Amino acid sequence: INHIIKELNIKNYNKQEFCEYKWSYIWGWIKFDEWIDVLRIIDLLVTTYWFEDNFYNFGNKETINSICVVSWFWWDDILSAKTQNYDLFITGEASHRHLISAKELEQSVMFWGHRETETIWVNLLAKHLEREFWIETVFLDKKY
Questions:
Q1: Where are the strands (E) in 22-116, listed by range?
Q2: Cα(first)–Cα(last) distance of the chain, in Å?
Q3: Is 103 strand, coil or helix?
Q4: Which of 25, 65, 91, 100 is the most exposed place for a label (fewest CB within 10 A)?
Q5: Is there a contact between 109 and 89 (Cβ–Cβ < 8 Å)?
Q6: b/e for 69-104, b at 16 or more Cβ within 10 A?
Q7: Per-residue model confidence as pLDDT tens digits over 79-96
Q8: pTM for the predicted model, two decimal places
């Protein structure tokens, strides 16, 4: 969540992090004052984390001002995200039935994949090293 706030240069926001695991929060909810083009956010997430673009705009919104990020496979919170008016629900994995539920709820979703969410920190460290120390990095991914 903090990285998304920083990269999008969001000034006024309300953030709630919860479910601490090994000194890190694995769920986060953020609402911000400004409206941001949803495709700008998706592009940022895809290029920053090198994830596939698994975005489904079931809410049919061009701009959004709230995101819910939950780790891994926690689809039970999708109804909470919808009832609390979060525009984008991001999680690790999805099955066909989860996508059908999101579509029925008209809740926009993005899923990153279980393995991909485990590589976020390696990729962020690489970006940090590139920015701070001008070190070229290469992520060797056995997936490909």
A1: 24-37, 55-56, 63-70, 88-91, 108-111
A2: 28
A3: helix
A4: 100
A5: yes
A6: bbbeeebebbeebbeeebbbbbbbbbeeebbebbee
A7: 777 888 889 988 877 778
A8: 0.73
